[in-house]
Amino acid sequence: MGIGDKIQNEAEHLGGKAKEATGNATNNDELRAEGQKDQVVADAKKVGENVKDAFKKD
Hints:
Number of strands: 0
Radius of gyration: 14 Å
Structural class: mainly alpha
Shape: elongated
Largest sheet: none
Low-confidence stretches: none
Distance between the termini: 15 Å
Order of helices and strands: HH
Helix content: over 70%
Number of helices: 2
Mean pLDDT: 91
């Protein structure tokens, strides 16, 4: 996994956390859910990239 991908995935994860926190602060369930979804998507990308990296080593 390239460093650019890692940075992009982490930025997406942090953006999701920010959306979730804003949704919690403003009692906005849609924004909270969108933030949680963004975090799950970013985490799934991280897992996929880690699997690809594991296969590249062999």
